[in-house]
Design goal:
- By secondary structure, the chain is an alpha/beta fold.
- The chain has 15 helices and eleven strands.
- It has helices at about 10-15, 20-40, 50-65, 105-110, 155-160, 180-185, 220-230, 275-290, 305-320, 340-350, 350-365, 370-390, 415-420, 430-435, 460-475; strands at about 45, 75-80, 115-120, 170-175, 190, 210-215, 260-265, 290-295, 395-400, 435-445, 450-455.
- An eight-stranded mixed β-sheet has the order 4-6-5-10-11-9-7-8. Strands 1-3-2 form a three-stranded mixed β-sheet, sandwiched between helices.
- Helix 9 crosses helix 11 (about 350-365) and helix 9 packs across helix 12.
- It is globular.
C-alpha cells in the first residue's frame, strides 16, 4: 500500500530498479479496481488480459533497457477515447456495444510510451454533464463521500485518481470537465491550450471547445503525461503545428516576481464562502513565495454560460447527427420506415441531457434564429477572449476558484439543468477562449477538497505547471487521498 501515493516518477524509478515489475504494478491496480469499483462505479470496462499483456511487453522494454518515463505505468483512459479492441461507449447506450476499430492519437501516444491501459473510465453521456449522473452506466460516486458526486464529465477518471485505483488518468475538458472534477475530488488536472492535444479518435462533443488533458496527483505527474500526450497530428485539422516541448524543463524555476491576476468577477455572489476562504489563503501562500497580486477584470465572464449553452449544443447537434442507426452504434429493434428508424433509434439511444442539448443546438442553428443566437454567441465569445488578452497584458497568470462549491449530493441538481450549468461558471470562459488552465488541491472544508484554478496565456502550460509545482513543494493537499480505499 506504500505504492499508493507514489508519483509517476517514483513508479518509473521502481520499475527501472526492478523493485516491482509492470505486471506486478498492473495486478496491484487491477486488484484495487476489483475491490472498490462496485462502490465507486469509476470504470466502464476492464480487460485484465489486455492490460497484463501490455504490462508484459513493458517489462520486456525495461529489461532491454529501452524504457521511457511512463513505460510500464498503468493509466486509466476516459471512455471517450477510441482504443483498438476496447469498448468506446462515451457513457451512452448509443455506443454500448461499440468496439473501437482503431486507436485515438492520445491512446497511440500512451501505447508508444509503453504505458498500460488499465481500463476505460465512466463519464457523463457524450461528456455532457458536471456530476457524472448522465452516464447510461450509472453515476460515479465521490471517494471522499459516496453520497456526493465526483463532478463531471470526467467523473470516472476523477474517482479513479482520488481513490488511487490508477496512478493517473486522462480526461477531456469542453467547459470544465477536467478542472471541476479535479476540484471536487482533490487532485491536479490540466486543460491544455486548444489544439495542443490531438482530437483524432476522441469522440466529439463540441469540436471548437473539446480538449484532452492529464488528471493526476501532482503538477509533476501532469507534466510527464503532457510530454506524452501533446504534439502535432495531421489527422486532426485543429491540431496546432509547433515544436514539442519538455513540460518537465521549467518545473523547478523560481516564481519570484510572478504577477498573479485576481478577477473580481470570480469572487462575487454564488461562490461558497468556505471555498473562497481556502482559495484566498492559497493565493496568500503565493504571495509568501514572492508573487505579486494584481486585481484585474473579466467584464464579459458573466456571459460565458449563456454563450457556451448556445455554441456547445450547436456543435453537439451536428456532431451527434451521425448516431442515426445506419452506420454504427445502437439501432432500434422495430420500425416502419427509415424516418421511423431514425426517430426511434435516437429516442431510445440518447439520454435526457443529450436530447436537451441536441434540441437547443438544432434550434439556435435553425434559419430564423441563427443570427439572434448562434452568430451573437460567436461575437460575445470573441469579447470574452479579448478580456483575457487585456488581462494578460497586466499579469502572468490568473487565479481563482475552480468550482463555486465543494462536491454536492447526488440527485441534488439533477432535475435543475441551470443549477447544474452554474457548476462551470469559472471554467467555461477558458474553453471559449482556447486558453490553458488547471486546478490544484488547495485544502479542505468539512473534509471535502477544494481546488484553486490557474489560467495561463496560450501555450504557457510549462509555466502553469511550474507555478503549480512551486505551491505543491510547500503544501501537501495534493498528497491527501480519500480514506477507506486501502
Amino acid at each position: 500500500s506504500n505504492m499508493l501515493n507514489l508519483s509517476l516518477q517514483s513508479l518509473s524509478l521502481g520499475l527501472e530498479k526492478k523493485t516491482f515489475s509492470s505486471q506486478e504494478l498492473t495486478k496491484f491496480y487491477l486488484e484495487r479496481i476489483k475491490r472498490h469499483n462496485t462502490s465507486l462505479n469509476a470504470f466502464i470496462s476492464i480487460d485484465e488480459d489486455k492490460s497484463l499483456l501490455m504490462a508484459k511487453k513493458s517489462d520486456e522494454l525495461i529489461a532491454e533497457g529501452r524504457p521511457s518515463p511512463l513505460t510500464g505505468i498503468p493509466i486509466a483512459q476516459k471512455d471517450i477515447f477510441c482504443a483498438q479492441g476496447w469498448p468506446a461507449t462515451c457513457g451512452s447506450k448509443m455506443l454500448e456495444n461499440f468496439i473501437a476499430p482503431y486507436d485515438a492519437t492520445v491512446i497511440e501516444k500512451f501505447n508508444a510510451a509503453g504505458a498500460v491501459n488499465i481500463g476505460k473510465t465512466n463519464m457523463d453521456e457524450f461528456a455532457m454533464g458536471s456530476s457524472n449522473e448522465t452516464s447510461y452506466f450509472g453515476p460515479v460516486k465521490n471517494p471522499w463521500n459516496l453520497e456526493l458526486v465526483p463532478g463531471g464529465s470526467s467523473g470516472g477518471s476523477a474517482a479513479a485518481v482520488a481513490a488511487r485505483l490508477a496512478p493517473a488518468a486522462t480526461g477531456t475538458d469542453t467547459g470544465g470537465s477536467i478542472r471541476q472534477p479535479a476540484s471536487l475530488c482533490g487532485f491536479t488536472g490540466l486543460k491544455p491550450t486548444y489544439g495542443l492535444v490531438s482530437r483524432y479518435g476522441m469522440i466529439a462533443f463540441a469540436s471548437s471547445l473539446d480538449q484532452a488533458g492529464p488528471m493526476a496527483i501532482s503538477a509533476e505527474d501532469c507534466a510527464l503525461m503532457m510530454n506524452v500526450m501533446t504534439g502535432h497530428d495531421k489527422r486532426d485539422s485543429t491540431s496546432v503545428e509547433r515544436d514539442k516541448e519538455d513540460y518537465m524543463s521549467q518545473l523547478n524555476g523560481s516564481i519570484k516576481g510572478l504577477k498573479i491576476g485576481i478577477p473580481k468577477e470570480f469572487f462575487s455572489q454564488g461562490l461558497d464562502p468556505s471555498v473562497q476562504t481556502l482559495v484566498e489563503s492559497a493565493i496568500e501562500q503565493y504571495k509568501n513565495l514572492g508573487a505579486e497580486i494584481i486585481e484585474i477584470s473579466l467584464p464579459n465572464n458573466h456571459l460565458a454560460i449563456p454563450v457556451y449553452y448556445v455554441i456547445a449544443p450547436a456543435e453537439a447537434s451536428s456532431n451527434l447527427s451521425r448516431y442515426d442507426g445506419v452506420r454504427y452504434g445502437y439501432r432500434t429493434k422495430e420500425y416502419d420506415d427509415l424516418m421511423d428508424m431514425y426517430f426511434k433509434t435516437r429516442q431510445e439511444g440518447f439520454g435526457n441531457e443529450v436530447k436537451r442539448r441536441i434540441l437547443i443546438g438544432t434550434y439556435v442553428l435553425s434559419a430564423g434564429y441563427y443570427d439572434a443566437y448562434y452568430l451573437k454567441a460567436q461575437k460575445i465569445r470573441r469579447l470574452i477572449s479579448e478580456d483575457f488578452t487585456n488581462a494578460f497584458k497586466k499579469c502572468d497568470v490568473i487565479m481563482g476558484p475552480s468550482a463555486p462549491s465543494v462536491a454536492f449530493k447526488a440527485g441534488e441538481k439533477k432535475e435543475d439543468p441551470l443549477a447544474m450549468y452554474m457548476q462551470d461558471i469559472y471554467t467555461i470562459s477558458t474553453n471559449l477562449a482556447g486558453l490553458p488552465a488547471m486546478s490544484i488541491p488547495a485544502g479542505f472544508t468539512n473534509n471535502l477538497p477544494v481546488g484553486l484554478q490557474l489560467i495561463g496565456n496560450y501555450f504557457s502550460e510549462a509555466k502553469l505547471l511550474n507555478i503549480a509545482h512551486s505551491y505543491q513543494q510547500h503544501t501537501d493537499w495534493h498528497l491527501q487521498s480519500a480514506k477507506g480505499f486501502d
